[in-house]
Amino acid sequence: MDQLSQALVSGLLLGGFYAVMVLGFSVIWGVMGVINLAHGEFLMIGAYMAWGLFRLFGMDPFASLVLILPLMFLLGYLLQIVLINRIVERPHLMSLLVTFGVSIALANLFKILFTSDPRNVAVAYNGSLQLAGITFPIVKTIIFGAALVIMTGLHLFLQRTRLGKSIRAAAQNKTAARIVGVDINNVYAITAGICIALTAAAGAMLSPTQAIFPFMGPPFTLKAVTITALGGLGRIPGALMGGMVLGVTEIFVATYVEGIGTNLGVATSFVLLVLILVVRPQGLMGGLRPIDAEAE
Amino acid sequence: METGPPPNKSEESEKKKSPFRILAPVHSLLAGWTGLALWLLLLLLLALYPYTGVSSAALLVGSQIFVLVTLASNWNLIGGMTGYVDFGHAVFFGIGAYIMGILVTGSPLLISPEWGFWQALPASGVAAALFALLVGLPTLRLKGPYFSIAMLGTLVAMREIARVLRPITGGGVGFNLPPVLNRVGDYYLMLAVMGLVVSLIWWIQRSEFGQSLIAIREDEIGAEMRGINTTLHKIAAFMIAAFFTGIVGGFWAWQNTFIDPDIVFVEARTVEMVMMSMLGGLGTVWGPPLGAVVIYFLQDFLWGSLFGVHLLALGLLLVLIVLFMPEGILGTLGDRSSTSLGRLLSRVGRSK
Q1: Is residue B279 in a domain?
Q2: How many domains are contained in chain B?
Q3: Interface contact flag, A104 B145, Cβ < 8 Å
Q4: What mean pLDDT, rounded, does chain B reach?
Q5: Nearest of A68, A65, A83 to residue A28 by alpha carbon
Q6: A111: nearest CB among B308, B318, B326
Q7: What pTM did the predictor assign?
Q8: How wide is the angle at C-alpha B235 spanned by C-alphas B230 and B239, nearest 5°?
Q9: Which of B105, B237, B228, B108 minimizes the C-alpha distance to B178?
Q10: B31 in a domain, yes or no?
């Protein structure tokens, strides 16, 4: 029983992180129909930035978000203008190939810059609290709280602000949005900026809890796809739900599969993904875009 | 005005636009018997090459190029001709490499007596093909990007599993194979495999089987309506591509004498296959081999021996090819509509 409730709590905490990790991926896909295979690499960049700031200035990873968010917004904005806007109207295959290429290039760029030695950010509060016989790792609990704050913030931004409304309009019907005066390219670039900043923030928050290395990205990209298939595109409650399901499943596999379960995170989410897509191609909660191969 | 169907007109104007279509007149010849005859002639010359007294380093270069050509052609069968863009094809390479490693060393499974190279090589291919069957049955039902991502997932998941299954795979530290140096043998073996694979693809492209694959790529529902058993065709193409990729993986493990999860199950190898196919011309018979040769020499001349920089350049080059030359060399110089991406691009912007 204790093991069960501990697994459940750990799973939900992990799920909170997954939910904030997936937001950027899911919103980019939902708004411009681009499946960003370099998602995990942006997370990796965020983690490296947090590590660098921690190492050089002793900056706390959560405090360093103040710098990481605007910088990565800028990177996302520029990348969208220079690269992705050129192919966003073309067949899916092209954006898939471009982001795949970007992911390999970024991972290897960081390997050249920082070698493939694992780095870690050793914060002072890296312990855990005991509450009712259940262990709460402090950092993961803070991430969970931050995840809820970020998700609420993004939700309010998309629902209430003018810019958020333009983004949703561009997602729903590009042509109509253009007609009523939305500057699609600019909206896309802002969306990409926000999404990549959020992804990097997730990486920065993750940095105290796991080793940082150039090739840490792809598992996160794959988990992001799985969560999106679970929770639907660009929906914040869906991301939360999908993140929780994946987090709990992963921790249960780790707890109950003897010996090797801890290292089977990707395999678990791969099996989940293929199961979902085979049984329900539109995603568990519906709403995955029909792929252009169909519509052509 | 002529009363031709509109797509033809746009293709005509496309042809006029480009000044580089020097291959256009001979294009149809290359796809036919002339192409095969030239190919066989090239194979014959390559078979005579070791008799000209070349160094063993040149033979190594030769066998490495043959490996790349084989990989590119194999990937093209599923990714170009059938239109299922496989981002995890390196998984079959890895399976082949591991089967070879496990069988010839006997360890870590303590197989005794150990298998010889010639028994283990077909086993590598068969294992990869069986794995393709296992994975393909669910994943080939997925469409477009979902298939690509599911295969990428297969690759990353297998890397993880190979690390975890220490009793079978030796875990993350990998293991060594007996070093056997036989450059001439390697050269002829890979020449034979490459010759076989490319000729097979040439034959497939002319056969009813290949035409069905292309029909699946162009319009899967339509193909099914016409009575093509799409599942069977896709699985067959997938298994053929996996079989030879597994053979190459097994050979590579033998030649490299060391394997671990991070060097055989690696995304960069998939990127290489995708890029060589795209550079040459996706979905054509001769494009991927051409792309492979070009990429090999580009790597050799431009990026030298720095492995890390080489992978960075690989990623960037893929981006550049997609942006500026999506139809590849053959599509740019010859007939744009012969490459699958050229066809896709002339048909759609993005329908949304």
Answers
A1: no
A2: 1
A3: no
A4: 81
A5: A83
A6: B308
A7: 0.84
A8: 150
A9: B105
A10: no
